[in-house]
Amino acid sequence: MDMYLRSLAALCLSNSSFGQTVGRPPWGPDPRKVISMTAPQGHWRIVADGFQGDLNLTADPQGNIHGTVKIDAPNVEQIHGFWDEAEQRLIFQRPVQNAGGKPQNYTGFLFEASSPLFQDGTYGPPINPTFRMIAGSFDSYDVGGSGARPLFGWVARQNI
Questions:
Q1: CA 1 to each of CA 42, 108, 152: distance values in angstroms, whole numbers, following the listed order
Q2: Burial of residue 7 (number of CB atoms within 10 Å: 0-12, 13-18, 19+)
Q3: CB within 8 A of 151, min separation 6: which ones?
Q4: Do 158 and 44 form a contact (C-beta atoms < 8 A)?
Q5: Which member of 60, 91, 120, 123 has the greatest number of CB atoms within 10 A?
Q6: What are phi and psi for residue 78, nearest 5 degrees?
Q7: How many separate helices (H) and strands (E) can be counted in the chain?
Q8: Sign of the CA dihedral with 21 first, then 27, 30, and 36 last
Q9: How distant, in Å, are the alpha carbons of 44, 154, 160 from that of 79?
Q10: pTM for this structure?
Q11: Torsion-angle region of 144 (φ positive above 0: left; ψ -120 to 50: alpha; else: beta)
């Protein structure tokens, strides 16, 4: 499972100017055709380095993100971060209670998808998306990570 998450995160992060596009040229997104989605809000299911839980997000008009994450049950941790509309990028920090509040910094990119996630012979964004996903990585230098492996993958899903 951990390898699947890393592959999904690598796929989503392979282009630093990530954005879903219609008919995207291979050299990057066509800014005239980027599909923009509002800041992720509400309840999401999250898997972070194989640990499953709940992610609840709220956003204000300026793109500030607040919410909670429950990965290390029964701990519910407050998170705060930012939403970048142009890049469809979410950044937030999680203070890990089991590690004395030391932070993990999450970065992820939002996109719409449908099931099955990978459809042979289908290209471009889904015609009838059934869920939204955020996929990315988080650093964990003082919370289980090391200099040899400071980054881990995460993915979250919300039904539409």
A1: 25, 18, 13
A2: exposed
A3: 137, 138, 139, 140, 145
A4: yes
A5: 91
A6: -75, 135
A7: 1, 8
A8: positive
A9: 14, 15, 23
A10: 0.75
A11: left
pLDDT in tens, the chain (160 residues): 444 434 444 444 444 333 443 444 444 554 434 556 799 999 999 999 999 999 999 999 999 999 999 998 999 999 999 999 999 999 999 999 988 999 999 999 999 998 888 877 778 888 889 999 999 999 987 776 667 788 999 999 999 9
Calpha distance 36→58 (Å, rounded): 18
Length of the chain: 160
Q: Residue 145 is encoded by which pair of tokens?
A: 């990570």
Residue 69 buriedness (CB in 10 A; 0-12 / 13-18 / 19+)? buried
The DSSP output letter for 8 is: H
**Residue at token pair 């809000």:** 41
Comparing C-alpha atoms, which of 9, 32, 7, 10 is closest to residue 21? 32
User: Helix, strand, coil proportions of the chain in percent (round to 5)?
Assistant: 10, 45, 45
Which pair of structure tokens corresponds to residue 104?
């993990």
Q: Which CATH superfamily is domain 2-15+41-159 in?
A: Avidin-like (2.40.128.30)
Show the tokens assigned to 11. Answer: 């796929």
